[in-house]
């Protein structure tokens, strides 16, 4: 039983590293892109989880295209959210419309389970379904699809319920897991340089082992908007991939938001990881500045 749990943690670790890294990459692309567009794509609620992240690669590569191409095709520099594509109208103006067809996915791992416990062939199909309903398209299946979002990756299945005793042990496992991801990223030279010092401290000092990795993850999650709280939306990169492996992740993360304002402060984060508040410093900005100064 114990080794099975460990195995699951390792699978979860690898899976989530892949996914969080994918996100980080897209986020970087997005930051580049943001400088060239005026579009503000922030969502007001968590139903649009992870949305903007998904179509970024195409948008980022297009910004590197030749300027004259840009002038010819107004869609070149236009970013459309997931499940949408850019089309030009007769007057040569670019606009985002729902994508007509998502790529056929044969890999079952590309399937996703939604908040309605319905399996979709791919994340694209989820965003497309929502787009149809948002834009009053006749292809909207039913009004409830306006709020459809990805609950976890893979087909919908029977999730074991999270038992009280599993939840009790969860903060420890989560701390361990965060430390291990941080170490793994450092080993692969993929940890941003301004976190390396924290990582090295974490290797040598047991107190800093947990606190530094907790701070790192919190800073990392607090990306968009960067407002010193982690919204439910911003939890997407750890929540969705872990859901399938760790049935306690959802109740655990819900408990982290102790005052239920849909935002997790560093204080709340530390508390739910059972860390001493005094050991936690909000040094995200300090770290980012140090990185910029280099
Ligand atoms: C961009 O395209 C124009 C016209 O097609 C060409 O003359 C120019 O050399 C291109 N510039 C670059 C950097 O490729
Ligand atoms: C979700 O769907 C799966 C597969 O159809 C089913 O086994 C499971 O019980 C459902 N879960 C809930 C919460 O309804
Ligand atoms: C570990 O780090 C804490 C916090 O910076 C510090 O107070 C403590 O002395 C360190 N312990 C060791 C053994 O270096």
UniProtKB/TrEMBL annotation:
Keywords for this protein: Calcium, Disulfide bond, Glycoprotein, Membrane, Secreted, Signal, Transmembrane, Transmembrane helix
Keyword presence, Secreted: yes
Family annotation (Gene3D superfamilies): 3.30.60.30, EF-hand (1.10.238.10)
PROSITE patterns tied to this protein: EF_HAND_1, OSTEONECTIN_2
Pfam families: SPARC_Ca_bdg
Residues covered by the SPARC/Testican calcium-binding domain: 159-272
MF terms (GO), sorted A to Z: calcium ion binding; collagen binding; extracellular matrix binding
Main location: secreted
GO cellular component: extracellular space
Transmembrane portions of the chain: 6-24
Subcellular location: Secreted
Keyword hit for Disulfide bond: yes
InterPro entries per record: EF-hand-dom_pair, EF_Hand_1_Ca_BS, Kazal_dom_sf, Osteonectin_CS, SPARC/Testican_Ca-bd-dom, SPARC_FS
PANTHER family named among the record's database cross-references: BM-40, SPARC OSTEONECTIN
Name of the protein: SPARC/Testican calcium-binding domain-containing protein
